[in-house]
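Re: weekly structure request thread

Next one in the queue (162 aa):
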Amino acid sequence: MRRIFIKPELCAGCKNCQVTCLAEHSPSRSVWLVNLSDRGSRPRNFVELNNAGQPVPLSCRHCDEPECVNACMSGALCKDPATGMVTHNPEQCAGCWMCVMSCPFGMILPDARENKVAAKCDFCADRDKPRCVEACPTGAITLIEAPASNTDGKYPNLARGE
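Done, posted below.
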């Protein structure tokens, strides 16, 4: 099962991951043409400062037992047992924001353009590798093969690099 693995100590705070995420989910899909001033565009990953003032990249953890899926009343969110990815079907989304409220990591947000459906990391489903991974110049965001379940304790928190 492929997972995004974050090494926060390597993050330089360049936000390349955010810009390429914006580009991937824009009509042009180009970093050269993405409109950074468009308030309707929102990346599905973030770089935030931790308590020590150090930048930390954040993305959906595609949790083993996702609270967002449990909270989704319309069935728009589901966990794919084969890939381990939590997927979102915007056509099915009721815009109730239960997933937004239930995600303990704050990685699901209302779509910034229409504010009618939720938006979350889709692992760049049309690509072999997520663009945030490709764009990270320091290796803070990488792609790894992880066990189907993290219950063995070997990978207790993949998204934080623990």
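The helical segments are 16-24, 67-71, 98-102, 131-135. The longest strand covers residues 2-6.
Next request, please.
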